[in-house]
Amino acid sequence: MDVRNTEASVAFELNGEAVRITPNPGERLSEALRERLEARDVKIGCNAGDCGACTVLVDGEVVCACLMTAQQAHERTVETLAGLVRSDAHAQGLMERFQDHGAAQCGICTPGMIVSAVGLLRETRAPDESQVQEALGGVLCRCTGYRKIIDAVLGVPAAIVEDGGVGQALRRVDGIGKVEGTERFGDDVAPPGTLEIKVIRSPYPLATFEFGDLNGWREEIAGIEAVLTAADIPGENRFGVIPAFADQPVFAEGTARFRGEAVAAIVGTPDAVRAFSPDAFPVTWAELGGVSVVSEAQADGAPQLHEARPDNLMCRGFVTTGDAEAALATADVTVEGTFTSGFVEHGYIEPEAGFAEIVDGRVEIHACTQAPVMDLEAMEIILGMHRNQIRMVPTGVGGGFGSKLDISVQPYLALGALKTGRPVRLTYSRTESMQSTTKRHPSEIHIRIGATQDGKLSGFHFEGAFNTGAYASWGPTVANRVPVHASGPYRVSDYTAVAKGIHTHCPPAGAFRGFGVPQSGIAQESLFDELAQKLGIDALEFRVQNALEDGVPTVCGQVFEQGVGAKACLEALRPAWHRERVRADAFNAGATGALRRGVGLAAGWYGCGNTSLPNPSTIKAGIRADGTVVLHQGATDIGQGSNTVISQIFGSALGFSAADLTLVGGDTDVTPDAGKTSASRQTFVSGNAARQSGEAMRAKILRQVDASKEAAIAFGDGTLTVSDGDRQHVIDLRTLPPDNEGYVITSTGRYDPPTKPLDKNGQGAPYAQFGYAAQLAVVEVDLALGTTRPIRFVAAHDVGKAINPVLVEGQVQGGIAQGLGMALMEEYLPGRTENLHDYLIPTIGDIPPIETLILELPDAHGPYGAKGLGEHVLIPTAPALLNAIKHATGVRMYSVPVTPSKLRDAIKGARHG
Amino acid sequence: MPYLAPTRTEDALRFLRSNSPKVVAGCTDYFPSLQQGQVDEDLLDVTRIPGMRGISRDETGWRIGAATTWTDIVRAPLPPAFDALKLAAREVGSLQIQNQGTVAGNICNASPAADGVPPLLALEATVEIAAADARRVVPLSEFITGVRRTVLQPDELVVALHVPDVSADTQSHFLKLGSRTNLVISIAMVAANVRLDAGRVALAHIAVGSCSPVARRLPDLEARLVGTAVEDLAGFDFANPEALTPLTPISDVRGSADYRLDAVAELCRRAVIAASARS
Ligand SMILES: Cc1cc2nc3c(=O)[nH]c(=O)nc-3n(C[C@H](O)[C@H](O)[C@H](O)COP(=O)(O)OP(=O)(O)OC[C@H]3O[C@@H](n4cnc5c(N)ncnc54)[C@H](O)[C@@H]3O)c2cc1C
Ligand code: FES
Ligand code: FES
Questions:
Q1: Can you tell me the ipTM of this complex?
Q2: Is A369 helix (H, G, I), strand (E, B) or coil?
Q3: Partner residue facing B99 (CB), from A5, A61, A832
């Protein structure tokens, strides 16, 4: 034994090869694998055992590499995904099945999932569903809703096709890197040893601060290369996704307005950053009393967050039509209620991360983002540099769901690279990510709805206050979207809706799947059940009776002559609704214990694209002399599948297999702007641009050889063959002059959805299309413990045209999982649930079977009739669950999440009251 | 800042006295509690000491080595009285956590929500503690003294837990209440060890976690249960306030204090009934 074995080297077998390293004492195995042994297929989502992304096999057993010292691997065998897929038959089978089922969406959880599944399959060749759930229970996935993963591990047959035009279940075109562990996410780009950045953050919701001698401090500490503060910002210390509301500083100046706000950053060697304790940083704080909820923020004398926004009111959204009050007064029955919800964290498994360097005097920023061009525009302002001096290169994105639309690591990376002149990297810790990036808005919603005896809606009044946190972010979008959507997909002729965004000293609330609509949906769909009950009308038939239809104006006075799928979605649920109600009632009639079942449903709608604002997408494509077809696909794929969907649309338009396209991502140097990945706009807007681009390219080709519309095209090595009936033309691509990018034929498509501005009453044409949904949930409630276990979902979604049905199902299942989380377990409390240990998102055991009914009511504006889908998927979930809980327990819950504690209290209250 | 992973207990104890290192085993509590900048600690890794891992029988009962993992517990052939411990083991975090986390780590970390503690209390486990020059044995009920506090001195290690012989007809059950299925910290949990005689409760050991700073046995409830016929358990008054007096739950993000008491009474009922039915 050598007590002083600090320098001891550690030897183990990694993926079949002997390796020897000299890690720091107590270094995490995950870090050693990633930074010393280039095993970047081992992912880091939390560094705390909560997410399982770092799962590896040590001596054949699954462990979290982040919870093991590298020394503990000494003389053991370590297997990671990358090694397993090379040599292990189970892993190779899983790799194929994960792709067939679309079980890897963003792919950040996939290494942990596949490694865990290998561990299972080695012991149990033909596991059942519950064994899969137990074995994979330690790995979180935020994208898929787990059902596809279960199917893939079980080996359920998949309906996959090879060529993959529009409407076909093509495998993800970018799937292979996700299942092999070679996809590079935000933290996977920087070379080992790169200088690191650590951001200094406010420990208080509201505090003033002063720095000490920063230069003196820095010079004292070896390895700290630079300190960054607001003083280092060459341009404006301000950003925001909506220019008119840009209000957030990169570094706070003098006052920090939320816990976790950045005030400074250090840049140093990995060792120096590792040893750095934020307590040592020369800053003194004076904590002040902040406001954390809307009522405090609006109270007299409340501290004001932004001078130009009195009463902490950021902005208001308003829609009115007819006369809500008069209709309510004449209604036969009315219901009203106040509904509340808290902050919800996006909980993607990949924390924000990136890398930056100076190349030929330009700043190049690699980061996980949903919106590379918006990032570029923000960086122009912050850096005070011309945009051609900045390059944004999106990395793989390990989930975004709206939060990676806002910049996070980007400015620190750029400033760090500029100040040191050296490459730098920055990866947020899980807690930093949760503290400092945007959340779903907490809401307080009061609504009143009336109906006549025969079940027709009569008057609808909505008032919603949304806690938008310290900075605007997407708050204005929430305030505008909610009044447009709060009616739900129903015919409401007398309507008034007001939504306000209120500032508090909380993290900025921004975009999260649905922009406030899931919150308003909870209130409206819950009260629809109450209304139906009061009227003695079946809850489904009440909705069907009032559902929007072609030719019926929305609350904004917008009339769609086609493509309104609200009623079809509801009607699609009718068989399941009757069957499940009967089953549940029978179960309850025979119940002797504490368990009761309930069935609930809810509908939803969502306008695709920006509200009444231009949001064009451009898609460019080119053919190289060697016959390669290159698609410049700038619609960031955050797991939802735009790489595949856009390829399928482009391929169909061109008449070429999507799987054979070469994709170039949203690198701002080479790919035109396809807008941001949000608002369910990529399939619709970028899809249209892709279709135009494909059609334009096809037309160019056919024109060259004067072929007919029906002609088939095929690419060979340097040739392009056009077969037109019995005529064949061969174009020798090598003889055509290449442009400066090396393309011999190019085409570009651009699409901007037709919308009209809203007038002062919110009347106009805010979106070119809506998508529609209705979902049914079956739950089992333990009356004595207050626990709710969803046991089944049926989801009907009108997607216009399912460009890829497997991807549609994946979106639906993933959305339902997020809606379930919001309904039952998720609440972000600053200072209290800032990690994935205390902030609970659904695990594999929480998501029951989900049956997806895909409806295709084509939309005139959509590419091949397609409608967006990204956000609709979770809007009906939470209210459907609340309605099911009501059915099971007789108790109406007005506040989410419905934790066991809250539900049990309500059940007890109902018994006594 | 050395990292030492000795193979002999004596070496570990000497290093402990000389360097005051942080003791680590499965590291599943150690790493999550690590603070940014906390790097220059000496570490003593006890997982390579053969005598510290595994379960064995001796004259007076069972010995569970300190660094025995939860997976080891699940896989060990043990009498039915250990069923609660096995059920708890299967609910500690995830398989990953169970493969790494150790029994001693769980009790030394002294979280009120430690799932291993109620079953071990119901088994009347004792803790064997060693220093370089001394050894002592402390009942588990006295070992943990508060939230994240134990009687362990800086130069001491836990080397094993001991469970006194239990009759083969003692049945046992464990129930954990959380807000999701996997990977969840208990809102409350109950371990019940029950021996029946002619259809009546002859002995009951009931321990509750997450409802007081340290998990507690419920002696009053246990005494009341003795003599109760199995068929009367469903109607038995588990919510009797006196029976639950050792519990002082707090309200936190996971649940209110009232809810915890309310749920615990129900969990006790279910655990006792389930234990009684396991024979
Ligand atoms: C994601 C996750 C989920 C979890 N879920 C649960 C759960 O559901 N239920 C639950 O109860 N716990 C849970 N835990 C906590 C933890 O896994 C357990 O407490 C585990 O048993 C700790 O054992 P360990 O060996 O990993 O401890 P370590 O982290 O190695 O050590 C913990 C403490 O014990 C001390 N220690 C360890 N061994 C000895 C010894 N022999 N002598 C003296 N001191 C010692 C260490 O110094 C340290 O203070 C979870 C943890 C994580 C990360
Ligand atoms: S990174 Fe290891 S469990 Fe999350
Ligand atoms: S695919 Fe699982 S987290 Fe994205």
A1: 0.97
A2: coil
A3: A61
